[in-house]
Design brief:
Blueprint (H helix, E strand, L loop, with lengths): L14 H21 L10 H22 L20 H24 L3 H27 L11 H22 L3 H30 L3 H11 L1 H24 L6 H25 L8
């Protein structure tokens, strides 16, 4: 009798980790543009943050459509009769379309110098932007049999990752504006600290869970994935930039830039590790 090995593929490809990364930054940058109407320090970011947010939104849409086996299927989200409103994906699709529509309207009102309407659209767009990392987190957490994913921390973690990555990108747009860099440094510190606290909780609950969780913990903390998750995501991309920002050098522009770069690298590594980590056990059984 012959021996057979069955290899189970991961239904969520690594493309989704790039999508999580770009859509999170897009949402945070729109929020930075909104802050420019209420905080003088952010005023210079109003246009540049919004334009980059819109570009990343478009890139995110292309990533989602390209990953479909039949790209034309994305048109189904335009058909209310087709949508399953009990699925986070349905609400996420509507959120993406709504955010895109508000972003376009926001662009035209800013071009017309309609400050009153721009403020209203900025607030509305920020609420929709907040929904983007929340729904991506819910996309994962509703999978009851996937370790790492199935935790109420996931939507909150994705919001924190969105803020820290967005603030990191905004710091490159800020240039030498000292007051703005101070504000962005604080956002990176607080959101980075929140990410670190949630990662510790995530590791703890995974390490002492059932068999599937313990195996997932082993895969995520050893081998190639362990190097990406622990080495790049946690140590190099979360702990190191937090310590750097707390040091005197982290208060200088060059220090903030270096910390921002590390946070972006770490943010991508964490999203990839979480996405793959929740599926890796199934490839062995």
């Amino acid at each position: 009798m012959g021996d057979f090995n069955i290899f189970h593929h991961m239904p969520w490809s690594s493309t989704y980790s790039i999508y999580f990364f770009t859509i999170g930054i897009s949402a945070a940058l729109f929020f930075m543009s909104t802050l420019s109407w209420y905080r003088e320090e952010f005023k210079t970011l109003r246009s540049s943050a919004f334009y980059l947010s819109f570009v990343l939104l478009a890139v995110s849409g292309v990533l989602l459509i390209a990953d479909l086996s039949k790209p034309a299927r994305f048109l189904n989200i335009l058909n209310p009769a087709y949508l399953n409103f009990s699925s986070p994906l349905a609400w996420g699709g509507l959120n993406l379309l709504s955010f895109g529509a508000v972003s376009v309207a926001y662009f035209f009102t800013m071009r017309k110098n309609n400050e009153a309407m721009s403020r209203k659209l900025a607030v509305l767009g920020s609420l929709l932007a907040l929904g983007l990392p929340i729904y991506t987190g819910f996309d994962l957490t509703v999978h009851q049999n996937r370790p790492v994913w199935n935790t109420p921390l996931m939507p909150v973690l994705f919001v924190a990752l969105s803020l820290v990555s967005g603030a990191a990108v905004a710091s490159f747009l800020a240039g030498k504006q000292e007051k703005l860099l101070v504000m962005l440094r604080q956002i990176m510190l607080w959101s980075g600290g929140a990410v670190a606290a949630m990662l510790i909780s995530l590791l703890g609950t995974t390490a002492y869970g059932g068999t599937g969780q313990e195996l997932t913990f082993m895969f995520m903390t050893s081998g190639t994935l362990g190097m990406i998750f622990i080495g790049v995501g946690i140590l190099l991309g979360t702990a190191a930039p937090i310590l750097l920002l707390l040091a005197p050098f982290g208060r200088q522009q060059s220090g903030v830039m270096l910390a921002a770069l590390l946070l972006l690298v770490g943010g991508m590594a964490l999203r990839y590790s979480i996405l793959i980590g929740g599926q890796i056990v199934q490839t062995y059984f």
